[in-house]
Amino acid sequence: MAQVDVRINGRPYRIACDDGEEGHVTELAAYVDRRVTELVTKLGQVGDARLLVLASLLIADELGEAYAALDAREQGAEGNGHGDSEAAATIETLAQRIEAIAGRLGSP
Fold this sequence. Notes:
The chain is 72% helix and 13% strand. By secondary structure, it is an alpha+beta fold.
């Protein structure tokens, strides 16, 4: 079992992972760190636990929307051939929802 040292919000974390997955875990941690940094820019340092919860919720929302966009695209490709424009609209809506969620979650 391998271990990777990553930094999120300036704090070090040692993460265990399967051998050969070190690069992938490092990339995932970098993505989380970018999302946390975005929240810090908007909200300030509101505590590591809160920042990680907020970032997790935003990432979970992104994932859910990505699955929805993929489903819509697949259904559009099967049905009417308008899957690409529907996916683009869904992605735009996703971006707007993420910003709105970040704003709401940052309010105490």
